[in-house]
Design a protein that fits this description.
5 strands, 192 residues, 5-stranded antiparallel β-sheet, alpha+beta, rod-shaped, 2 domains, single chain
Length: 192
């Protein structure tokens, strides 16, 4: 009882540990998205602030303040452009990785198909060899020999006849044969 409790506790702790590791990937992605949104919002806020400063300066008629506001606005625009460029670059990298993975998968699929083809060819060759061996065995059984006078004294199997009604004899090893028109033994195959 004590051992089973220890075992169950260990299994439960491993289950919790492995599940927590598997879920770490999602928060990282969400965190990155949140940071990207925060950066974007910050850039928009900077742009709005620069616009507000420009309006304020315009209203007051201060040329120096107006120039500063324009510079701030340009800087905010440049920051947004940099962010867009970074996003495009990240997207392009992601596409390139996917394309590389796809190419690898295609190569693997081609290799698997070639391997399957060779296996199929080997199986066909093996089946052909087995068929040839079986035919050789059948040919051995059906081979013809010249009958000798002793063969005519072999026990006769009255229950069966040859293809043309010949008498069927039983040989010394139990094989059945008949004497054909040429006077040769023709063994009957056991396949019938």
């Amino acid at each position: 009882m004590n051992n089973s409790v220890k075992l169950m506790t260990m299994l439960l702790s491993m289950l919790v540990a492995f599940n927590s590791l598997a879920q770490d990937d999602k928060p990282k992605k969400e965190k990155a998205k949140k940071e990207a949104k925060a950066d974007k919002k910050e850039a928009k806020d900077d742009k709005k602030e620069a616009k507000a400063d420009k309006k304020k300066a315009k209203d007051e008629g201060d040329k120096v303040a107006m120039k500063e506001a324009k510079a701030d606005k340009k800087k905010a625009k440049a920051d947004m452009a940099d962010e867009k460029a970074d996003k495009k670059e990240a997207k392009a990298d992601k596409k390139a990785d996917k394309a590389a993975d796809k190419a690898d998968m295609k190569d693997k699929a081609d290799k698997k198909a070639a391997k399957a083809d060779t296996k199929a060819d080997k199986a066909v060759a093996k089946a052909d060899k087995k068929a040839d061996k079986a035919m050789a065995k059948v040919d051995k059984k059906v081979k013809e020999e010249k009958a000798t006078p002793a063969d005519y004294k072999a026990p006769v199997d009255r229950s069966s006849k040859g293809p043309s009604g010949e008498t069927v004899y039983t040989g010394p090893k139990g094989g059945k044969y008949y004497i054909n028109k040429n006077g040769s033994k023709t063994y009957l195959s056991s396949l019938k």
